[in-house]
Amino acid sequence: MPRLRLNQTLRQLCALSLFFGLLTAASAQQAPSGQKVIIQDHAEYSAYTSVVNTADATARAEALEAFIQQYPKSVVLIDALELEMAAWQTVGDSKQVMKAAKHLLAADSGNIRALGIVVSLDRLSAAQGDNAALNEMCVDASGGMLEVPMWRQPADMSGTEYVTLSKLLNDIFIGAEGYCAVQQKNYSQARDWLTRAYVMDPTNVQ
Q1: Given this model, what pLDDT does residue 11 score?
Q2: Staple 133 to which of 31, 92, 122, 138, CB 3.0 to 4.6 Å?
Q3: Distance between alpha carbon 191 and the CA centroid of its chain, in Å?
Q4: Is the predicted pLDDT of residue 38 greater than 80, yes or no?
Q5: Nearest by Cα to 193 from 176, 147, 126
Q6: Average pLDDT over every residue of 144-151
Q7: Coil, strand, or helix at residue 93?
Q8: Residue 97 DSSP one-character state
Q9: Residues 6 or more apart from 167 whose CB is under 8 A from it?
Q10: What is the separation of C-alpha 56 from the centre of its chain, rounded to a whole number of angstroms?
Q11: Cα–Cα distance between 65 and 58 in angstroms, integer?
Q12: Is this prediction's pTM over 0.90?
């Protein structure tokens, strides 16, 4: 792999690590407190409470997956999927993170955090020659650029985390758009996208 391409991959890995860290921190603040939604079924509520309080990340992720399968129409489905996604990230299983992220997008197509994860992981795969991942990334990055301006601060996220994550999401989607343009040999458009990325962060050479 050429040195520049290796550096780009390493930078993408660093951005992805930071993104996952923010996601995990935000998701960890979620709990079945009843402030956002109320689980009416006692058995379901007990199951959810037990699952989210599971200390071991692997066991928690697997328990969340089982909960989602048992209660696919739960009022806390989105929360459960986000917590599962964050738990798999804590474990370091990118395959399961991608699976949970795509499940989350199927349930909540405008979930920008899941979209950012899919785009980031697809970009890493695309850099290794995966054309299917490249095509998916290019479509999703365009969608992400439309979603970022409409994303509002979640109730469970601090103002600092929101600003940082918003900037990082912009960086992920803009960088992906530029990468797509380069792969499509649309160099004028690539220059525009990568210039925007540079303006946002002069240390970014994605």
Answers
A1: 54
A2: 122
A3: 26
A4: yes
A5: 176
A6: 89
A7: coil
A8: H
A9: 200, 201
A10: 21
A11: 11
A12: no
> Cβ contacts of residue 8 below 8 Å, gap of 6+?
127, 205, 206
The contacts of residue 124 (CB under 8 Å, 6+ apart) are: 9, 12, 13, 16
The single residue listed with the structure tokens 């365009």 is 142
Distance, CA of 49 to CA of 151 (rounded, Å): 28
Tokens 């380069």 appear where? 182
Residue whose structure tokens are 């071991």:
56
First vs last Cα of the chain: how many Å apart?
Answer: 15
Measure the CA–CA gap between 73 and 81, rounded to whole angstroms: 12
